[in-house]
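Thanks for the sequence, V.! I ran Cell shape-determining protein MreC right away. Repeating your input here for the record:
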Amino acid sequence: MEQLFAFIAQSRNFILFVLLEVLCFYFIVNTNNYWSASFFNTSNRYAAQMLAWSNTAQEYTNLRQVNADLASENNQLRQQLTKLQQVSPGAPTAYRADSVFANRFKFTVAKVINNTTTLANNYLTIDKGTADGLRPGMGVISPTGIVGSVKSCNEHFSVVTSILHSKFYVSASLVKANEIGTARWMGADPTRMSLLDIPRYKPVALQDSVVTSDHNTVFPPGILIGRVRTIGAQTNQPFHDLTIDLSTNFGNLSFVYVVDNQLRAQQEQVEQQVDSER
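Predicted structure:
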C-alpha cells in the first residue's frame, strides 16, 4: 500500500496532466456539435468492429457444439427418411412394409477421432462403443455416403473398417441402369472405387448415381456410394470396367452414423438354414 502511495506521489504531475486532458476532451465533445458527432460516429464504428470480432470469436468457439447439434438433427432426419423409404419402396406400388420392417434401421451418431486414408487397409476410430449399443458388423455411413463397417468395439470406442480397404466389398446398384454390382476399392486413390459385375450389354451413363442395394444386411438401401466417373470394358470379360467418384470425403470426416439393422440376425439365421439344406 505504501508503494502505491509513493508511486502516486512520484507521478502526481503526470496523473494530473492526464486527468486535465480527459476533462478538456469531455468539454470539447459536449460543447461542440461537430466534435460531438465525430466522436459519436467514431466510437460507434470501433464499438461495432469490436462487437463483430467478439461475435466471430464466440461463433468459432461454439463450432464444435454446433456441429454436434447438426449431426444429431441429421440423425433424426435420416431415421425418418429411412423409415419412409422402407414403408413404401419404389416398386411394386402395391407393396407396403409392416411397421417392424420399416423401423428395422436404428442410427447412432459418433465422432471420428482417428482416420487413415493412405494405407492398403484403412480404418477409423469413433467415440462410441458397446456402452452405446454398438457391436461388430454394424454399418457406418456419413451425411454424404457410406463409410464402412464396425470391426471391433470396447466400452467406449470402436474401430471401423473403412471402404478404403482391400477386402471391403459392398453390394451396389446403378440408379439409372437399374443393375446390381459390387463396389470395391482398388487401393490407389482414396476418392475413387471400382464397380464390378455390371454386364456390358447394360447401358451405363456417366454421373449415374451408385447406391447401396437391397442385397445386403449392413446398410439401408439407397445410401449413396458415388457417381460413375469412367466407363470402359474389361478385356475378354462380359462386364463394364467402371470407376466411380466416392461421395464421402474421407480426408474430412467429422461425424458418422452407425447403422443397426435390428432384423439382421433373423435374416441371416433363415438364410443360413437354407444354405445348410443345400
